Amino acid sequence: VVPWYLAGGVDEANCIAAYQAIGASTIFASYTNLANPATYDLTAGITPGFDISYGWAFNGVDQYLRSTMVPNNDQTWSVIIRYSEQSGTGDKALTGSLNAAATSGIALIADKANTVSYRNGNTPSTFAPKLATGVLAIAGNKAYRDGVAEASTLGTGTGTLSQTIIGGVGYAGNVAVWFCNVKIQAIAFYHTVLTDAQVAAITTAMNALNASTPP
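Request: output the structure for the sequence above.
Response:
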């Protein structure tokens, strides 16, 4: 059986990290990097809530998870995340990693002034409407909402990024900020640019995950 994070023919060597919270037996089990166990496993900054039926639940105030993974800031990476019940507006990030000045990096924001905000470089691109529940992705210079590409080309980036945060973003000295109130079911990172077909296939596979599909 092909794991959800390799749907669409993704080469397993190109998935650097994949985490599945929905269906995990415990919150500690959900921290395991399914693509490369014991490498880039998650640790808790402030531990989020957890339930096998929906995964992690972040309070939007101070809860987050951290990976020591540091993405390249050159649009050679991809990230895809399934989440639900996001609330609140502003810089409420699902996941991200920025440079020391927070002027460049990778970030996905489900609701920024009633838009979705995507960043894989210096300048974020925003698209209405917001998305409280769904799947968002970035692959190279393209952004995707529920498996469909948005009509934009993301700008390039500069500077070394921080470690990766889930439930917010990381920047200067690996500080976590932009906390998000949201439930997150699964997320994966790739050091390759996924194709349109691969993003669509992974989106479908992620949406099929439930409490009865353990990692």
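Residues 32 and 38 are 7 Å apart (CA to CA).
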